[in-house]
Design goal:
The chain is of the alpha/beta class. The chain is 24% helix and 26% strand. It is built from twelve helices and 19 strands.
Amino acid sequence: EAPRVPAHRSPPPLPSRLGGPCEGEMVAASIPETMRAFVVEDGTATLRSDYPVPRPGADEALVRVLRAGICNTDLELLKGYKGGFRGVLGHEFIGEVVSAASRPALVGRRVCGELNVSCSSCHNCGRGGTIARNHCLKRTVLGILNHDGTYADYLTLPVANLHAVPDGVPTEAAAFVEPLAAAYRIVEQGLVRSEHRVCVLGDGKLGLLIAEVLSRQGLASKVTLFGRHASKAALLGDAVVFHESPREATALPDELRGAFDVVVDATGTVEGLKMAATLTMAMGTIVLKSTCASQATIDTSAFVVQELNIVGSRCGPFPEAMKLLEDGSLDVSKYISAVFPLERVAEALEMARSRGCLKVQLAIAPSELSAATGEPPAK
């Protein structure tokens, strides 16, 4: 059932930037009390106009959201992934900092933000590096776990999570930084070497971005992409070799069975995992890159007999993703299927669920809707 969207009011104005004893701080009275937000409570998703604007802590920033991307994880959360989600949905975004007491230089800058908010005190945080970034034992996660997300006029994040967006990167492209970083995580994990034959299963939003990233790693042979839509593979040009995915792993051609050193499963399905096991050579690696709310039983004998490595892969490095966008070598605008205003979030989610759809974005700020439609913002 599609989330219901009640009547709404116009978005609150952007709080004015004020000087004073600490440039970048906001006078409390200038910050709106309420905002628009797409909120999930007790299994019901509602667009509210009276949701409290979050108040940033001492080391946090208040960010006005410009655009938000709809991710498959958002759709899975609405179906019950992680036992049911409560709060404001969404974790892909670009916004503008309106308050940052500990880093006033960020005020007015466009930023993207890493979604894992660490405690800085648990065992994993104490080890530093990637394990602290991705696996804090007490973490909250933007729009996923105990931290309100991006389908709203404002959000808060620690300033340590924020990355300034270079002026040359368009706003609609910068909204891809988080999923592009997730794709780059496979490289960061050191799972792919130049001599490897690599296959990506799934030609959805994430699968295509993974293929884009891996095809830029100097591999001796082209990345193989399995999917259901040749038109999607065409967006990568001649960077990949495309094969139409069969309905079952048993239908794979003999010459492709056990042919790949690394197979990335971006299907989020049990059948995809079975297919990955069939495609991966003995002692090869299967990378699991999708989350799925459904439960299933699978025969693990092939993984044991073939001595396959199964590796989870989650959040990745924002700086590397930003470089890809900044140098102009990757045009992600071709992956945008539609842009909706926040008021039409139910339609946006419905479209994002539809077969063959790629990235759907929400134009949260009126200026972004104007940019998407070519029409001036409503007054």
